[in-house]
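Standup notes
- DV: blocked on the single-chain target, sequence here:
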Amino acid sequence: MKRTIVYLSLGLAVFLFSLLMLYIGFISPAKSDNSFPFIRMTVCLVLSIAGIALFTRYIHPVSGLAGLDSAWLNLSFTISLLLSLFVQVVTFGNSNVEPYLSGLAEKNAGATSETFYGYIKYVFMGGHALIAVRTFIHSAFLGLLKAIMKHAE
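- DV (later): unblocked, structure below
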């Protein structure tokens, strides 16, 4: 039972951090109609992807769930990142953020910023999707090793 609480709480931490970066980098500038959110979006994008990637990769020894026990932890990370991706798809498709990003892209037509504002949401979601795939493959590999070791005895 203690491990389940650890799995859920660490998965919740990843989910909430992802949503915090989504809010700070994309929803808040859209609500305030910020005319140049380039730095804020870039910093939140890098912090979100790098922070979650490092956290999901190196938390195992710190949490005491290293080795074959980390398969369930990686599965909880995968589920929380997939839930986060769902929230991101809904957020980027709503009536507030999507017109804001397309308006920024139109405002900066002909510049590199047009491409940046056009594709930043896909980079944000794609980074989280890649981390979810990595944690899922790691979880499946560890589960397979655990099953092989269990049946080898």
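- Follow-up: The radius of gyration is 18 Å.
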